[in-house]
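Hi again,

Forgot to attach this to my earlier email, sorry! This is the prediction with phosphoric acid mono(formamide)ester bound. I've pasted everything inline since the attachment limit keeps bouncing my files.
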Amino acid sequence: MQTFTNVKELGNLQAAVKEALEIKKNRFAYKSLGENKTLLMVFFNSSLRTRLSTQKAAMNLGMNTIVLDVNQGAWRLETERGVVMDGDKSEHLLEAIPVMGCYCDIIGVRSFARFESKADDYSENILQQFIRYSGRPVFSMEGATTHPLQAFADLITIEEYKTQARPKVVLSWAPHPKALPQAVPNSFADFMNEADVDFVITHPEGYELDPQFVRGAKIEYNQEKAFIGADFIYAKNWSAFADVHYGQILSRDRSWTVDTDKMNLTNQAKFMHCLPVRRNMIVTDDVIESPQSIVIPEAANREIACEMILKRMLESLE
Ligand code: AN0
Ligand code: CP
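Structure tokens for the complex follow:
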């Protein structure tokens, strides 16, 4: 495996989930695979889960890890080619990336949407430069448009908690005070569309996601209708994708907050969220603290999802 940014790169998805669940039974079974191999994690944005789970996954495989927080202690990096660098940026990504590649065997990159230009965000400008110029296998730790490690962990979690062969999985938009990227819902849709689930997306009008990720998913604009009979509720906020409103907040409507009344419409659905979550905006205290909430085991599976990706990347080194 050379890159991991979307569901297709996993090949057979059922086999991938099976491999991950095998790893979970003994996460130290491949401890010698990563001996003397180094993972470099490059963060352009904050993280709690990705930072810890990725490092832990690498340690399970016997790897060494180096973490670079680009905005804390590194030179400020120019990312656009052709710029006269007479401002506050001391180094260009085009030198920085191959240099980073010299010190490691695999690279993980976190670089969120910047909402300056939809075309820039959706071209995955920064992640693609790492893929092109680092000379190393590269995986996304949340790019501008996808968060595949999260979606893979989500799918593993659904596999563990499902009580029907083909569960109904509902991705629900929920309100948030700040504009957030579409990466998490994009990847969740990317994965759910390939999984054996009945997948429904519910959001207010204007929050339609990129059709390349939504594909054949059902869209239901009435949130309560969408919740009826659901086995999993996956809440997430995102900002608008449509050209005219790209990156904007169109609604802060708290009637979309996931609460107990709405959960009562479901088939005793499990509640999921990638975290970090703002309580009583996205979901009420009662729901996230209820036995139906599986946000903590979901986060725990980030370690397993990442270990599977690192294992495949290590296996394909030379
Ligand atoms: C980020 C997002 O919505 O993409 C990261 C989620 C894993 N969330 C925030 O910035 C709050
Ligand atoms: N879910 C997730 O990726 O969390 P962090 O932003 O804390 O890494």
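The CA atoms of residues 100 and 182 lie 28 Å apart. The radius of gyration is 20 Å.

That should be everything now.

G.
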